[in-house]
Write a structure and sequence with these properties.
With about 100 residues, the chain is of the alpha+beta class. It has one domain. Helix content is about 40%, strand content about 15%. The strands form three sheets. It has a two-stranded antiparallel ribbon. Strands 2-3 form a two-stranded antiparallel sheet. A hairpin with a 2-residue loop joins strand 2 and strand 3. It binds zinc ion (2 copies). The site of one zinc ion has 7 residues, from loops.
């Protein structure tokens, strides 16, 4: 799992020392965003001027996929908790476990 946090001024992606051009805009609650520093190639634009780090891109894609499928009632909870990435992560983990 990609870890978010203050890892210094260079790109936070693994083994990448490029200088940063973007911050991760993924909401982590309390009107805060992930803010991980990202270079050009590791900042993924999911909407105009909205960039996600590699780890949050995975969550975002999973969330989009599950929302599109509307497979389980848990999606309703996720919609209410869109900014609660921990809830998404938890549901994602449960999802993986049920597929095993
Ligand atoms: Zn990078
Ligand atoms: Zn992030």
């Amino acid at each position: 799992m990609f870890l978010c946090g203050d890892l210094g001024p260079h790109c936070a992606a693994e083994n990448c020392a490029a200088s940063t051009a973007y911050l991760c805009d993924y909401p982590v609650g309390d009107d805060k965003t992930c803010d991980l520093s990202l270079c050009n190639s590791h900042a993924y634009e999911v909407a105009p001027n909205i960039h996600y780090c590699p780890g949050h891109l995975v969550l975002w894609q999973w969330y989009q996929m599950r929302t599109a499928l509307s497979e389980t009632p848990r999606i309703d909870d996720l919609v209410r908790n869109l900014a609660d990435w921990q809830a998404i992560e938890r549901a994602m983990r449960e999802d993986e476990e049920t597929r095993r």
